[in-house]
Amino acid sequence: MKPLQKPRLPRRALHGVLLLDKPLGWTSNDALQKAKGLLRAEKGGHTGTLDPLATGLLPLCFGAATKFSQVSLDADKGYRATLKLGITTTTGDGEGEVLERRPVEVDEAALQRARASLTGEIDQLPPMHSALKHEGKALYEYARAGVEVERTPRRVTIHRLDIVSREDDVLVIDVLCSKGTYVRTLAEDLGRMLGCGAYLIGLRRMASGPLRVEAAVTMEALAAMSETEREALLLPPDCLLADWPQVRLPAAEAGRFLSGLRRRVSLADTDEVRVYGPEHAAFLGSAHIKAGELIPGRLLSPVEVQGLLLNSTETRVA
User: Where in the chain does DSSP place strands (E)?
Assistant: First the structure.
């Protein structure tokens, strides 16, 4: 006689953002599906692919928070990258075959010149070993088949590139960059400027917009928690917009705004604002201001607003 299996609990509507410290070797979707199952969440999505060979901050959005995931996708990202100097590979990382070995004769002055040259707006050629799509297929699929696809350089911004440490031929850098930046390509470009070549041996995402990896939970810790403890980790959806200016509306105006109506405000034109009702927890959605009008963007439903208010109250009581 087979032992009785525990009945599987149903999925439920959860609204919030989980800051996950993605494990090494996991795809972003692997991490999302595991976390979604642990939380029993009905609806979820991640906020931008992090390579399996990378670790670090992966914000996961559930329920109403998925409406604002694009904000995190478009946000600047912070990385700590570890480079091996003197070697180039076919993939720009440790998974590829070695193409060339060269002596490393790099002094501090050369490092600072290369760092300065790669700071600001630069053009990057997307690597063949990337998830960028061409005619419906990821570039890495073509690369694995030995096919080279013509690519167009893309303009990205390196806001900051700091040398953290150097020990023999291993260089550690911190990078703050715009969306769409390939740190692997940045490592190769840095190696080329130094005249010795380089490839990426480690990558960790430290930040995404206003969110930081220090607040993230590991998958191992998440799996060991009770369901109540996991749910308590969910941040409200507006954490994704935390660096946007905020607008507060009185109750009557909040209700009209939530129904999609424009409201008159005495505020300067602004491309991005987060909008609240009369209570701090009553996040309503995003908007922009033009010619004295508050114009709705992505809005929560009244049910979602009430659910977030309830969760916030329960958290304060707890």
Answer: 16-22, 44-46, 54-62, 77-85, 87-89, 98-101, 120-124, 133-134, 137-138, 154-167, 170-177, 198-208, 211-212, 217-218, 246-248, 263-264, 270-276, 283-290, 293-299
Catalytic annotation, pick one of 21, 51, 189, 238: 51
Banded model confidence at residue 312, pLDDT cuts 50, 70, 90? low
Q: Which residues pair with 163 in a beta bridge?
A: 173
Domain with CATH 3.30.2350.10 in the chain: 16-75+211-232, 77-204
Assigned superfamily of 77-204: Pseudouridine synthase (3.30.2350.10)
Q: Is 51 a catalytic residue?
A: yes
Query: Quick one: CATH architecture of 244-317?
Result: Roll (2.30)
Reported confidence tier of residue 282, pLDDT bands at 50, 70, 90: confident
CATH pick for 16-75+211-232 out of 3.30.2350.10, 3.40.50.12370, 1.20.140.10, 1.10.10.10: 3.30.2350.10
Look up residue 199 and give its two tokens. Answer: 């490839």
- Provide the pLDDT for residue 7: 63
Q: What was the pLDDT predicted at 314?
A: 52
Per-residue pLDDT, 318: 38
Residues in the chain, how many? 318
More confident residue, 52 or 102: 102
